[in-house]
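Please go through the sequence and fold tokens given here and tell me how the chain folds. Record follows.
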Amino acid sequence: MIIRDYRQGDFLQIEDLWKETGVYRSERDDSPEVILRCNAQGGRFLVLEDETNNKIIGTSWLTWDGRRVHLQYLAVLPSQQGLGYGRKLAEESMAFTRNKGSSIKLEVHHDNIPAIELYLSMGFKILEGYEVYLVYYEA
């Protein structure tokens, strides 16, 4: 397995992976163009790939708002979970953030106990007392 940067042509596999892991939501309107724009603004999109068959089995999307890194779509195919790949992606994501001299923020569904345990074991802290609100605008 290798961790590499996102490349043009990866998105269809990534979208399938996100759907299979349950992190995908069509109203977020994520696309190859959005990924490239976020990367151009200082973010990074990591792909975990099985180099024997070029199958993408994990992702970590790091967006940068000029103040902190937001970790989004840290996802590993269900058939590959529990093998340490999520931790490797998280470690690489945290290294990117350290190199920026920034903090890293993420959101996780309260039912996703394995992810919560991973994040807590890596030093993430719960930001007590906050709720997350979003407004989706149609383009």
